[in-house]
Amino acid sequence: MYSTRYLLFQSLTAVAIGDALGVPYQFKNRDFFAKHPVSQMEGYKTFNVPAGTWSDDTSLTIAALISLSLGLNYYDMMSRFAQWYYFGDYTPYGKSFDIGRTTQRSIERFAAGVDPLLCGGTDEYDNGNGALMRIVPIAFYIVSLPGNYKFDDQTAKIVHDYSSLTHGHPRSLVAAGILANATVRLIQNPNQYTMLAAIREALKYYQNQPKFKDQVDYFTHLGELSFYKQPESKIQSSGYVVDTLDSVFWCLMNSEQFYAAVKKAVNLGNDADTIGSITAMLASLLYAPVSFPTKWLDILKGRNQIKSSVSIALLSPNF
Length: 319
Description:
Blueprint: H1 4-22, H2 30-35, H3 56-68, H4 74-87, H5 101-111, H6 135-143, H7 153-164, H8 170-188, H9 192-207, H10 241-253, H11 258-266, H12 272-286, H13 294-297, H14 303-314
Helix pairs in contact: 1-3, 1-12, 1-14, 3-4, 3-6, 3-14, 4-5, 6-8, 7-8, 8-9, 10-11, 10-12, 11-12
């Protein structure tokens, strides 16, 4: 296991790289990428921002990380999310963009006085990936808690509460649990078998929870090797939590290095920035230590913000 200091900085940088690589191509379909495969940072396409600019994925991750450096305080965390949404905090240029509908409504509920843990959407159509995109801070926070890590009731509650700030449907909570457990286990032991075992570990936990048992079928295939042998054409790369996890884990199980996994994720299309961001984050752990491609890193905006947020976290007793 590499040091937390190294892995946290590496994974947050990876979040921003995958995010920025996918931002210009958000919502493009796979046919587009078949003709115009992406391999470098671009600007001024889907959004009118310079090359290397990251979006909500990285901003909310930074906001959550800084909040957790002060302790687990969901009012503080939602306040920081609101500062991002309304005033452009935690962004390279002082302006937020590309916010998901469910996340937006959750922040607006919080601004209207709703308790943070009751702000998240709970409808069937609220199962977007807005909580998955910011999973890094809570995974590292959990790793740093005293005692031996287990994916048990205590861990699940922390992850579920964290997700419920914006996404509170049981399916979103299960998705967050699967991704958080995979992230923690890769921090501890980086290899593909560990990742697959972590997915199965989370599925087994939820199978024994009456509240979540009926959601497990949406994710069972993630624990089966046959799923990863499917061709790319079978993978749906939308912002739906099930499709997002399918895309991320499929890319990781079908790649052997960071660069290849991230390129593969972005070129799946549709929700290119979030799928690229989550894939890059896990790939930075799976293939640690990672040397980021200079043609991506040199163009990445807001690198000082990333460094500062990690420094704040590592100077606190919570990481």
